[in-house]
Write a structure and sequence with these properties.
102 residues, alpha+beta, three-stranded antiparallel β-sheet, 2 helices, 6 strands, 22% helix
C-alpha cells in the first residue's frame, strides 16, 4: 500500500524530486528512534480517520479510536500532505505523521 502511495506521488515529480521524496520517505523515523518504513507497511489516512484530541493524536484502528503515543509521532513537515500510519504486528502505532488539517 505504501509503495502505491509513494509511486503515485512520484508520478508528478521530476527525477531529482522523485529521488529526494523517496529518500525522505524511506528515512522517516519516530522520535523514539524507530524507522517507520523498514519492513512495515504504512497506510494513508483520510481526514476522517485521524484527529487531535486535547494534546494527542488519535487514529482509527479496526474501527476504534486509539491514542497515538507521542514518541511515535513524526514531527517533521509532511511532504506528501496526507496523514500516514505504520502499525506494529500487534496493531499499535509504530509511526504516525499527521497530514494537513483543513
Amino acid at each position: 500500500m505504501i509503495r502505491i502511495l509513494l509511486a503515485a506521488a512520484l508520478l508528478c515529480a521530476t527525477p531529482a524530486q522523485s529521488q529526494s521524496l523517496r529518500e525522505w520517505f524511506n528515512g522517516l523515523k519516530s522520535p523514539g528512534g524507530g524507522i517507520c518504513c523498514h519492513n512495515f507497511d504504512g497506510v494513508s489516512l483520510d481526514e476522517a480517520e485521524w484527529r487531535m484530541s486535547g494534546d494527542k493524536y488519535q487514529v482509527i484502528v479496526n474501527g476504534k479510536w486509539i491514542d497515538v503515543p507521542k514518541d511515535t509521532v513524526v514531527t517533521e513537515p509532511n511532504r506528501l500532505g496526507r496523514a500516514h500510519l505504520w502499525l506494529k504486528p500487534d496493531g499499535t502505532p509504530r509511526c504516525f505523521i499527521p497530514g494537513a488539517m483543513i
